[in-house]
Write the structure tokens for this entry.
Amino acid sequence: MATSESPRFLAGVVEGFYGPPWSQVERGELFAALATGGLNTYLYAPKDDLKHRTLWRETYTAEETAKLESLVRGCQSRGLLFIYALSPGLDIRYGDPTELARLRARFTQMLAAGCEHFALLFDDIPDRMNADDAEEFGSFAAAQCHVTNALARWTRERSPAARFLFCPTPYCGRMAERKLGGANYLATIGSELWSEIDVLWTGPEIISREITVPHVRDLQRWLRRKPILWDNLHANDYDGRRFYCGPYAGRPLELRAAVGGLLLNPNGEFALNFVPLRTFAAFVRSPGPWEPRTAYLAAMAEWLPHFATVDEPVSLEDLVLLGDCYYLPFEEGAEAEVFFQRARALIPTGPAPEAEAAGTFLAQSTRLRELCTRLTELRNRPLFYALSRRIWELREELDLLERYVTSTGAGQASDAECRSDFHLPATYRGGFLPKLQRLLAQRADGSFTPSSVP
Ligand code: GDL
């Protein structure tokens, strides 16, 4: 079997985000991209697939099994590891043997579908057990080890080459510091979880700007094994307005030797993951040095052919400008940052800005706004549908800023007012959610305060 010579280092993608899971077609495209990029793993863990979490006890129908079987085959035919994950943590009774039987029933179905590798995930679950479990196991970590060890041993007997992964309840540095899962959680995992089982970890934070070698080494001391990174750098399920097409960044190349694997949990919209995947694959294989921006520009050039429109082609310069507006969670791309600073300098209440500065801003804004309009004519409709809501909003904001700068800028009366018939109260930035968002402002240190403009 293609996957029996399992490479130890796992590098690939975890479909582990909230929201609509990827389609079979998208997963097929993913497997092709993983193989092309020299990656070797796909971890199946779609949060909002009902049978992955909420209905974990139910077995699959014949139709569902057939779909999963075709995914397993799709991976195996390309030499990729298909790892099947189940998340029973919302309501499992850890000490109840019938619960273990249910987990085994699901894994039996997957073994029959040809799957060899498995995972149990305990992220994002209530941080408590029922009274019986508390009495039997004493700690949350011990209860999870009991179930995971039993299932992993059972799996190994049936699939000798099986890799088995475990996601702890505190799965990042901040959660561990806050003692999520109880005192000594990670130490208990280190000593009680079977040493053959790998542990997933997202870094110092859920979304980690940087992941350093010392951070991972420190964790390794607790876990008594190298963690496998579940990297949420490009995940966008926590903010429907954003997506990330910036490069894999904030991780040194040396990290590769300090971890047991690297799995990227990217944008929920499959079509938006071209650059994240390309740059991630390049990072995994890079002989060094690693220059994220260079990798980004190279991947953007490769992405460009996907932007054929019915009419005027999109230029690489325009695509980079757009990509820079949706770069990474903690930074804009260079061109978007310059654009923003320019816009900001034009908005303050002070003296009218220089005509030249306004002119530069207006030219760039028009370019970006017109690009957003041109993208409605993309031939690749899945790509456009993934972009459309975000770039619609971007276009609206650019349009307003241009009107503002034109009506209040150089040569206009000092009390000139800006009004727009296209940006009317309640329809523009309207609705319940923005109203709620205006109630509290977040300070730079992360704390919240009542907003001055409710
Ligand atoms: C999480 C979830 C993940 C989600 C991500 C980003 C892990 C282990 N779990 O906490 O499903 O996509 O944040 O929102 O990362």
Observations:
- Strands lie at 10-15, 41-44, 81-86, 117-121, 164-167, 197-201, 228-231, 261-264, 440-442, 448-450.
- The chain has two domains: 10-287, 308-454.
- Residues 1-6 have pLDDT under 50 and may be disordered.
- The domain at 308-454 is CATH 1.20.58.240 (Methane Monooxygenase Hydroxylase; Chain G, domain 1).
